[in-house]
Amino acid sequence: MKNILFLLLFIISSIITAQNDGWHISTNENSDYTGIAIANGRIGMLSSSKPLQIQHVVLNNVYDVDPDLKVSQILHGMNFGNLDMYIDGEKITEDNISNWQQTMDMKSAALTTSFEFKDKTKISCTVYALRNLQYTGYIDISVKAIQQIDLKVTGKILTPKQYQTPKNTFQILKDVETTMPILQSVAQSPFGKHLVSTSGTFIWHNINSSREHQRPELNHKVISDYENTISFDYSLKKNESLDFAWTGAQCTTKDFSDPKSESERMVIFNLLNSKEVLLAQHKAQWSELWEGDIIIEGDLQSQQDVRLALYHLYAFGRGDSDLSIAPMGLSLQTPYNGHIFWDTELWMFPPLLMFNQDIARSLVNYRSDRLEPAKKRALNYGYQGAMFPWESDDTGEEATPPFALTGPFEHHITADIAIAFWNYYRVTQDKKWLIQKGYPLMKEVADFWVSRVKENKDGTYSINNVVGANEFAPNVNDNAFTNGAAITALKFTVKAAIEIGETPNPEWQLVSKQIKILKFEDGTTKEHENYNGEIIKQADVNLLSFPLHIINDKVSILNDLKYYEPKLSKEGPAMGKSIFSVLYARQGDATNAYRLFKESYVPNQQAPFGALSEVATSNFSYFATGAGGMLQSVLFGFAGLDITDDGIIQKNPILPKEWKSLTIKGVGTDKKTYRIDR
């Protein structure tokens, strides 16, 4: 295992070239390419190795129907991120350029691609998903002529062919002396649930005012129902440069009653604001996000990997949205259809709660906004309270494909949500939120578990017929994590009731004290009633030690670690190893903690940037759940931080020998800094 890990580290480090400030990832290798997301919490664009292109656009919380599974699926929107460029009549492609390089600037959330076309031009293109203008993207382009050239540039809106009744237009709007050219495509989403509208235009930065024609003439051409274009021609003398931008905005009836007009207004807003103003606002908002940061000295590769994970969680969330984050964030549509799972509450939410309570509030509010469908679901299945879906979409109803047993049986999600709610209050101390949103949901969750348990003859309670965190074991009784999560949710709800002056239901405390946690004869925690040493998909039992704190003595923690780590499947997601890393660090074993920290993500990194896939054998980018697990290894393992009823505390931090120091900055509502030195 160690030899394999070192080989993977060598391969990744040979592909990824880091600038020495830890904020940039640069590569000149594009033969094996998995993209990363340029996103602002509302729209996401997946990078491409091809010049002047992105792979696709993802629209957060805009769902239609998966044509194969017949369940909801987050939309791939119209792609406004592709440009065609011709130099002296020859189209630029990946086959006729040289000195290609891409650099991800995590501080500014910008991806820059630069290359040369023969001996004629040097071209640079920087892609932004504007944080300040959440429905828009901005592509900033510079063309420098090494010798005199004739240039042609085409901006495009590409509509997915599954869309219905596309309509493509180009018009030049005019108000007094201001002219505003707008390319626009409007279509119904594949199954007609939403009207989608995308507008785009060119913005000129440095057109020479001494020229007779200051702005090039735009030529409109509809290539097909699914490709709408405008283009311009321009001549550059030797050593001259042309700097311009292409901007697009995409709106739907999910968020706007008139998405067509709104997408036009947004593009006009970008057109009539300077590049400096727009990008300064974008960078200022990212600078505020980066007030929460992790700084590692002595291990630049780990620094880079951790920053990329934190960047993606910030990029996939918004504090003003009340939306959640899917396992793949805004990087792609599949797998999992862009649905919301326990991945958010158990894996992504804790790091975001530490650094950015605004985004964390959006994640919990997403659930409270869908409390009523969860209450109806509990009633439909014969229970009380609220029963949240395993896979959630915009409706809050169950969105899991019917063939998957996780939908009807993976009930721990309902406890996971209540745990996240209490942790949000623990950190923020926002009593108004607790009264209005937190406790009403937690109360319904507690009532669900009281109705869900089965009383045994000895007075204990069992939770039967569930799928636990280890999904390799369906329909089992007394699953360790499910039972532990239910115990924790019930206890937290009692605390929440007392905190706001309510009288807790006495059954909550009674049931929480009597739910069974099974043990083998030697005291090792037993995963479920019939467990007998089988391979597991991911950590289950070990979650009782962290984050649930149900098993706290060192002997039991180490026994469970040593028993279950060898049983973790190589085909499962890597989050389990993140939990093992946290637990080893908390027991003072930095060597095993660091080993498992690396094993939790290095095998899943994809060239050239180190994008995380869910498992080592896939290349779906970007697995935000894995990013959350990796960050928890650092925050709750090495840094020794924990979320308690007394707020965020630090206890027994520890450094691996590979690190000189670890600084966690911007923690909690008071933006506290923690530094650990060797």
From TrEMBL:
Residues 34-190 form the Glycoside hydrolase family 65 N-terminal domain. Residues 307-503 form the Glycoside hydrolase family 65 central catalytic domain. Residues 1-18 form the signal peptide. Pfam families: Glyco_hydro_65m, Glyco_hydro_65N. The keyword Cytoplasm does not apply. The keyword Membrane does not apply. Keywords: Hydrolase, Signal. InterPro entries: 6-hairpin_glycosidase_sf (IPR008928), 6hp_glycosidase-like_sf (IPR012341), Gal_mutarotase_sf_dom (IPR011013), GH65_N (IPR037018), Glyco_hydro_65_M (IPR005195), Glyco_hydro_65_N (IPR005196). This is Trehalose and maltose hydrolase (Possible phosphorylase). It comes from Maribacter arcticus.
